[in-house]
Amino acid sequence: MELEELSVVEKAAMLSGGSEWDSRGNDRADIPSFVMSDGPHGVRRQLGEGDHLGIGASKPATCFPTAGTVANSWDPALAEEMGEALGSEAHDLDVNVLLGPGLNIKRNPLCGRNFEYYSEDPIVAGRMAAGLIRGIQSNGISACPKHFAVNSQELRRQASNSVVDERTMRELYLTGFEIAVREAKPLTIMTSYNEINGVYAHENKHLLQEILRDEWGFDGMVVSDWGGSNSAVAAVKAGGSLEMPSPGFTSVRELEGAVKAGTLSEADINARAAEVAKIAAATKLVGVGRNDLLKDDIAAAHHDVARKVAEGSSVLLKNDNATLPFKAGTRVAVIGDMAATARYQGSGSSKVNATKEENILEEVKNAEGLVLAGYEQGYDRQGKADRVLVEDAVALAGKESVDVVLAVVGLDERSESEGLDRSTMAIPQVQNDLVEALKGAGKPIVVVLVAGSPVELPWIDDVAAVLYVGLSGQAGASATVRALTGEINPSGHLAETWPMHYEDCPSSGWYPAIGRDAIYREGPFVGYRYYETAGVPVRFPFGYGLSYSTFTYSAATAGENGIDVMVSNDSDVAGSTVVQLYVRGPQGGVLRPDRELKGFAKVSLAAHESKSVHIDFDRYTFRHFDVASNEWKTETGEWTLMVGDNAEHLPLTIPRTVAGDVNPVAADTALGHYLSGHVKEVTDAEMAILFGHEVVAPGKPVTFDVNDPIMSWVDSKGFVARTVAKMLTKQEAKIRQKTGAPDLNTLFILNMPPRAMSKMTQGMVDSAMVDAIVKIANGHTFRGLGGVIAGFFRNQSANKRTAKELNND
């Protein structure tokens, strides 16, 4: 039977999940259900139902470095190799759609989920994501880039409205997705929880139809984030294919009713059902069992791949007096709790049950050429001050048998997680105090820094070397020690700027938004685009990374299709560097940051070897989005091409005359502070010019509706709702303090708006019951409870009727 011959209710049933992780198939049309699973850096195949946050157990799988770490490799080919292994494991664990990679722009370093995202720059994010997607899909598995789009904070993530001007959205927040879609052709894409300019992502026609499908040519399935669907009817009209997880049969009835009422075309139902059916057919797994585990030889091989990725992604931030690599026979005092108990991934839905774990202490002990002179914990993992731990560490460091101190410090498990944003850019104070105290031992201090995002470094001038390993996956410890001993040469470059202090960040004054509207008032001045334009000093610039080798760039020339530059390794050590191309637009043209990355190439060179490196121009090199014509344009005139190894160090400059399709158009002087990049001083009037309309953040709601998060009920007039919100808030804080890890389920509930209850309860709650729950939030407790009770029985009867109708079909 053809898909179009199915009844409306059958086709509507295909547009929402059948369980927490499975789609609904249709036997009559020979359309199987398929399995989706989290997996941006490892397959999280859950063993039980009803768990989308990774609270319960999952099948063992390789935990690769997180996206924020992999991006530091600037190596799409390495990401593709990692993707091939990921896709292979997804296939073997009976997963059809792997939910990753995440490639949202890192707007602010405090976003709790930044470790899952690649970069502050769309070119890096898009190219790295494209590599991973190609690798995953080479196994007959669908990748699923996410979260589409303009998703930048965890606070109120299901009830937040990202307010952004069109040009900034297109050039900065969507270009990475565009590159991934055009270059890697993912079969699936996941929408974000938030609204974009007042319209939920999963029902945003401008985003899903006009841009994603019509402009970029995407022809796959659009799936909601779990619980991220608002109106099933609006989603189907706009281009949302599948809502997850199972909302029971509520959405089925809504879609069927809309078709009967003439407010929804059956052609739209057909289009969306065809997109779901296409994934079922394209990813159909043969001969794979649900209970299969990874074979030992595959697990071992993929552990080696994870190590290779970690090795290519570590960034040498400082190396005074060639302290690293350690010389043979170096006696090393290892200090730091994270040296013995590794932290190698973040918290949340991406957490992987690793097939193997390593730690730096054991790797140092077993490393050829190193002598372990002792180990001390140094600090309490949960941040509790402990003078004895510090004194013991300093005593070890001061022993004559110690040549160098290896301090492993960074962010703890509570600091980086889905569901909450960081409160500070500092690492725990007890760790800073430890590094400060270790100075007294008079030994060189080498810091291994573990964190998925930038941190402040108050002790940077007092240590000899810093190796930033990020969140480096299950093989990160051995990769780290190989870098420390010189078995491999660190070649990573930072994919985001590290500011001196959090207050230096362009959005620090309004991030995260605590109300409904998250206003992106900084416009395009994010990351290095801000720091380099406004002249704000940074700790480490975007693209920065040292090496045990030294490199020279020379003889840069620009041709019709790209630039060529000679790169020489002037040292006795083989190594790799990242050649980076930035452009500056014509003088007197449209508003732009001072420089923007437009291409890069990682090149490996033997000792004293030279190579010519080519970087292509492409559709992204010289364009800007013209809001008035709703088109991409290129300004005619003299552009400046700049080549170097980070956003600040660009020694080679080439003028380039470009024949575009418009003459330079001077930016409106009324943009004021935007013209110099000083966005912290931008006025509301200047922002109105950038946005094309006045932007006013609403105050606190007088009454609550279905889209206000449960955390906002602390201001409810109703005692019951107010008590629930306060109780949940206290519970989450208590559990986080007790366990040292965030309480993800409670955080999800606090951030969740009531409308998500009808999407996350397997059909136990429908939209009418949600309306009754909102009455409770607005102080009408008994009326609301009565509505919930009556609605429950009414909904159960309706579900039985729908199930019978589907079975009869």
Structure summarized in a few sentences:
This is Thermostable beta-glucosidase B. The chain has 23 helices and 26 strands.
Morphology: globular
What is the alpha-carbon Rg in Å? Answer: 27 Å
- DSSP E strands, number: 26
Q: Please, how many helices?
A: 23
Largest sheet: 6 strands, mixed
Report on the structure:
It comes from Bifidobacterium pseudocatenulatum. This protein has 809 residues and is an alpha/beta fold. The strands form eight sheets. It has a six-stranded mixed beta sheet, with helices on both faces. The two termini are 12 Å apart. It has four domains: 7-282, Alpha-Beta Barrel (TIM Barrel); 314-496, Glycoside hydrolase family 3 C-terminal domain (Rossmann fold), CATH 3.40.50.1700; 549-667, Immunoglobulins (Immunoglobulin-like), CATH 2.60.40; 710-808, no CATH class. α11 crosses α16 (476-485). A hairpin with a 2-residue loop joins β6 (195-196) and β7. It contains 23 helices and 26 strands.
